[in-house]
Please model this.
Amino acid sequence: MIASLVHAYTPLIFWTGVGALLFRFLPLSFPRFLGRSLYWVGVPWQIFSLVRETDFSTHVGIAPAVTIATLGTGLTLAWITLQLLIWLRTEAKPAWLGAIESWLPPMDRAAQGTFVIASTIGNTGFVGLGLIPALISTGDLSWAVFYSVTQNLIGTYGIGVLVASHYGRAEAQSTIWTLLRDILTVPTLWAFAAAYFTQSIAFPAWGETIVHSSLVFVIPASFLLMGMRLIQLNGIASLKTATIPVLLKALILPSLVAIAVAILGLNYDARLSLTIMAGVPSAFASLILAEEYNLDHDLAASSIALSTIAILATIPVWLLISH
Model:
């Protein structure tokens, strides 16, 4: 397990460090340009490649159903927690709240959107699919692959875009038509459809090379963006504000999934795969969506960093309770 963690985290640490070093030599507008480039080109390219490799004939029913239920549960938990925090700060104002004020996230509209996304959507592609092959016994990755594809399609670029579009605008400007327009113009959804309907068409060798080379560019670019945003954070004070969304994403949500998949009677690999996918760190996509929709990129970067540290402690727990 240690070797798989090192294998998964080495490129993350390397490229994030490079991004932090490069930031001082680049224009201040470059991180936003990089984030928007990933949103419109990089991520659709990666999804196109992933979908063309996915066999949709197996586990079509259970894995996507568990993923959608997990997303719905995560969204509900995040929304209830957010409303509770707003009520405590604006109406109840208990005396003890001052003692934990530094651990609470900002509550402006942009931060609320980032809070919900960071608490709900995980990094199933870069971290989840990087870790699970070394942890399961049969080598059956279909559970993890279906979870990742479903989350990207319905979670990140469905629910995530709706939340980002709603909180990225003034409340009066967030109408059903603007939300519908933003969903219909998500490039990743078009990339999914194009890949799904061309699965049976063989590309020439050079075409397949281009499709599969997405990982060479997209993952390092995402880590570079992460490094550029992390270097702008206010140290431990910024990480403390991410504590609540990380507790929801890295501990409470996967615990509920572990209980649910045990009740369903799934085998060990399926239980472990789905539990770990539910508990992977907050998605890099939350940072990309923050750049595209003007959400709180400091809270997004803090949540990613803190949840990435947290998974080092939680994976042994998921291994233990999945037996």
Observations:
- The radius of gyration is 19 Å.
- The mean pLDDT is 85.
- The chain is about 75% helix and 0% strand.
- Residues 236 and 302 are 9 Å apart (CA to CA).
